[in-house]
Design brief:
Elements (H helix, E strand, L loop, with lengths): L1 H24 L7 E6 L5 H17 L2 E6 L3 H9 L5 E4 L2 H8 L14 E6 L6 E6 L14 E5 L3 H13 L8 E5 L2 H9 L5 E5 L3 H8 L4 E2 L8 H10 L4 E5 L11 E5 L4 E5 L4 H13 L1 H4 L24 H10 L4 H26 L5 H18 L10
Parallel strand pairs: 1-2, 1-3, 6-7
Antiparallel strand pairs: 3-12, 4-12, 5-8, 5-9, 10-11
Helix pairs in contact: 3-4, 5-8, 6-7, 9-11, 12-13
Length: 388
């Protein structure tokens, strides 16, 4: 009996030691299981999240669960509801959620207190891609063509709206074809149901289109056309001119003169614990060498590729890391504080609009957009959109 007790005691001690060793091996300060939301399986954001998850597993023993969503709302909802801690999101779930526009202007949404951790600025482009056999070489050539509209994805649709404006076109000048998700829209090009869609050049679907019988090309968005860029950025200030060299049918020897913006945006909400955010940001930077070549576009997560003066504020937990690295400046702080003030103005205005009675959803939306524009203008801020 004493021998049995002794064996049990030794076994318990061994298990305790192995548990302690495992705890010590995870020096990241992160929980053993993390959850992110990302775009559909096969998208650039999803592929990058999986690669990052593998690096976190190898270095810290952390399991990263990636929850795919077919549009901006379905990627952002899990953060709001506390089902995931972070999201590899796009401008829809970050900038447009902050602004409370399009789907985020619905009564059950409104402006969201989003915060960035890191922005991916890779060599990809985020722009329109066309089936090569459609003969679309410039944005002006999109006139009369079949253009994909993704239901529930305001970022994709607003991006195309802005790009059409570059050539003085609107959705009335094209044939709108509706799809239920990002993947379905790209499949629509491959299956000859549409001619143009919005994508990341490194998405799996972009590669599939390039290899399909239809082929792929990126309509030129001429960087020299200053008036065109003014029209584009008036509707989508998050875009910047960019020569893409990474992705389907792209290389340094075969670049595309186009447009881009940070994608994915690793983000969370303002309420997220600062220590958790700091640990996540540190882990992303510490494992960079392990995942930077593991998926197309991962090079964009590098610290020296960050754009700290972008259109949504950073979380204090992430800012703490940037200050320690010596890359956060007074100018960045000023911009961040301005964006937080913008979010507060939007939140206050939303509360006022919600408190008023409205005949229907249409009148609610009209009141919100008018009130939103008036409040931002009064504060000396550009509302960007005054209606939709």
């Amino acid at each position: 009996m004493n021998a049995t007790i002794r064996r049990l005691a030794l076994t318990a001690a061994a298990l305790a030691l192995s548990g302690a060793a495992f705890a010590q091996s995870n020096t990241s300060g992160l929980p053993s299981t993390l959850a992110w939301s990302a775009y559909d399986v096969g998208s650039g954001g999803y592929n990058q999240a999986v690669a990052i998850g593998n690096a976190l597993k190898q270095k810290y023993g952390i399991n990263l669960r990636v929850l795919p969503g077919k549009n901006d709302v379905s990627r952002t909802l899990p953060i709001r509801e506390g089902q995931v801690q972070f999201s590899a999101n796009g401008v829809g779930g970050s900038y447009m959620a902050q602004e409370g526009i399009y789907e985020f202007g619905a009564k059950n949404w409104g402006p969201q207190p989003v915060r960035a951790l890191l922005l991916n600025n890779s060599d990809q482009i985020l722009s329109v891609i066309a089936a090569k056999d459609a003969g679309i070489k410039t944005i002006a050539d999109m006139k009369g063509k079949r253009v994909a509209w993704v239901i529930g994805a305001p970022s994709l649709n607003q991006n195309i709206t802005a790009i059409l404006a570059f050539a003085n076109l609107t959705w009335d000048d094209v044939k709108k074809v509706e799809f239920g998700g990002f993947g379905a829209a790209l499949d629509g090009l491959i299956n000859n149901q549409a001619d143009v869609a919005f994508t990341s050049s490194i998405s799996g679907k972009a590669y599939q289109l390039a290899k399909s019988p239809r082929g792929a090309n990126y309509p030129t968005i001429a960087h020299s056309d200053k008036e065109g860029w003014k029209r584009l950025q008036n509707l989508a200030p998050f875009f910047f001119p960019f020569n893409g060299t990474e992705g389907a049918d792209l290389s340094p020897a075969k670049p595309a003169e186009s447009a881009s913006y940070p994608y994915p945006v690793l983000m969370t909400y303002a309420k997220q614990d600062a220590k958790l955010v700091k640990s996540m940001t540190e882990a992303m930077l510490a494992t960079f060498d392990e995942y930077k070549s593991a998926a197309p576009g991962n090079i964009g997560w590098a610290l020296d590729r960050q754009k700290f003066g972008w259109v949504i504020p950073y979380h204090p937990g992430a800012i703490a890391v940037f200050k320690e690295k010596g890359v956060w400046t007074a100018e960045h702080e000023l911009n961040n504080n301005m964006l937080i003030k913008r979010q507060q103005i939007l939140a206050d205005t939303w509360a006022q609009v919600q408190a008023r009675k409205h005949a229907d959803d249409k009148t609610f939306a009209q009141d919100w957009m008018a009130s939103r524009a008036a409040a931002l203008t009064k504060a000396g801020m550009d509302p960007v959109l005054k209606s939709w």
